[in-house]
Fold these 3 entries.
Entry 1:
Amino acid sequence: MFLAVAALALIGGCGGAAGSAAPSPDASAAKDKKYQVEAAKADCMKKKGFKYVAFVQEWKKLPKDEKRAVGDYQAMREYREKRGFGVFDQYVYPDESNAQDAGPESNPNGKIQSSLNRAQLGAYDKALDSCAAAAIKQVLGLTVKSDMDYLEQAGKAADRAIERTLNSDPTLVRLASAMATCLKGKGYSPGEATPKAMVQNGLQTFQDLWDRLGREQRDDVPDAAPPRKDGEPWTYYRPTLTPEQAKPYLQREIKAALDDLECGRDFYPAYLPKDKAVQEQVGEQYPL
């Protein structure tokens, strides 16, 4: 399983991509703060008698990422024709996915935790929560209870910023409404038609399907996910699928992603650059 912050508009899966090939000074500063948090966390864990590796997730950026991030139609279409929203493609093209992204499984702390028994893991998690809170307070000046609480606060901060700026933008509201009407005409049920929702609806549909398949393969979690709350980190359960098993899901996803793109042809170039700016602003306070 892995954690995702649904509130932070997962643009990479929606056909855009967070970040750029040349990070801004503000982005570099936020990254430096994250390294500082991790270093302080590792030092704290060492003092408590636990092993923890200071680790900041690196996501490799492709040349076309920046074009997709600002709503370039051709760049978005090329991505979606092969990968849909970026959910089931990882099974059909595993080698390419691994080359493109250093995924969560590359975190060495996952291996450390998986080697612990239940009692050891409980003590480790308690120490990690304490050290995360101390490190984040020391470096960022924020009061949190744990890494999970930090993610939740970051998600809520992004929600507030998007609601204050993007969801109240008259042009974006008009374009989002037109996109929703178009999708309904193609047989989809986009639900809420706010600008933020229109970016997330398609991706969320297939993430929910992915999570449901993962839950059905496990005996220790309910098949149905509990209600999702805005701003809270979300745990997704990764299903085990062969490339052949995943292909029908990816085909459905590609069709939905292309329909979504056609309906949002005017919306995405207007929304994505503004969303990217909001995420960068929130990231200065909550580096991820």
Entry 2:
Amino acid sequence: MRGIDASIRIGGGGTQAGAHQLSTEQGVKVIGVASTIDNDLGGSDRTIGFDTACNTALEAMDRLRDTAASYGRIFFVEVMGRDTGIHRHAHGIAAGAEYVMVPERRENVNELVSVLENRSKEKGSCIVVVAEGDEEGGAFKLAAEVGKRCPQFDIRVSVLGHLQRGGSPTMADRLLAARLGAAAVEGLIAGKHNCVVGIVNGAITFTPHAKAIAQKKMIEPDLIRLLAMLAV
């Protein structure tokens, strides 16, 4: 914004931490806009990019499901997420994956093998969603371990990686970006700063940077229960 000592910063935790420093140390009036595909920044129920990343991963898994079913294979699909599985559970549930491994839920290879043995007999093919930060390792490590224990499986690995960060935004993300962008400008004009603009329970909110950065989002209990049901 020209002519005033103010700034808008769009991004996730790292970006907002920098914005907080800029505001507290340099006196610049900064409002952050919640934007990260991980949806792990406090101050907003949904962050810009989350819906697009989820839909990109879902489309990829729908395509993999076709080839998995055709050849009777087990696909390990690695999605982005070092510290949080907030949207990995969404991928797995929406795609009908047979198993989902995320940092927030403690799983083990023994449970995974048991599920795959049962599901492969029933369906002939399986999809396992793995967050890159899962405590048991990434998709290649898990696939190798399962392959050792179950040599009868025809296993393939697909790493979606930065594919999730590109592409055309969904309508939901475009509307969210428009709402938050307008609110950020209006907030600065009204004198708000050193905060993150987001939407909580459908309403525009302004959360102090420090609080938004420190807040750790958790997977909703009902979705944790659904994840557990996938492993039954």
Entry 3:
Amino acid sequence: MKVLIVLTSHDQLGDTGRTTGFWLEELAAPYYRFKEAGWDITLASPKGGQPPLDPKSKEIANQTDQTRRFEADPEATTALAHTVRLDSLSADDYDTVFYPGGHGPLWDLAEDAVSARLIETTLRSGKPLALVCHAPGVLRHTLNEDGTPLVQGRNVTGFTNTEEEGVQLTDVVPFLVEDELKSLGGHYSKIGDWEPYVVQDGQLITGQNPASSSP
């Protein structure tokens, strides 16, 4: 099995002057699930090279056994430092695609035509696609073959409005994931803030928050 993990290249948290990027747990936990399954992993990002890491995801309170394992793993950190440019890849070469979250994807991947085509092609090929936390927001411009929103009528989840309020970024992010998925006609559901929750609709799999990364 070959899995493509797509990371953000965006590092600015709106106009706050603070930096953002991908959330470490949302990469590390699935990375080792894939590794332990014996899958071949490719890391990609729009710009290639080292993607930006949300510094808050390295704070002690947000560290996990898997994040510590990842940061101490030379093979993993080398792969992360040399992500492949997303526009150089073909969906045909992978069996599944996974998008970690973090706030960065809301700015770049959510507006990236290459990413949208990758998602559309993957699902139309009958392959599984998974996105966690903020990453389901990347679906905002993806379409079905008839031109309707890809999430329309599908069961989905993603970072909740109240979780965004909890990190005090409601007025900073370009859009709220929960609101966006609902406005596109998705059948959005959630459970309590910060609790693991995963929704599967056919080959589309979405997770609510960082705790949902491994499941």
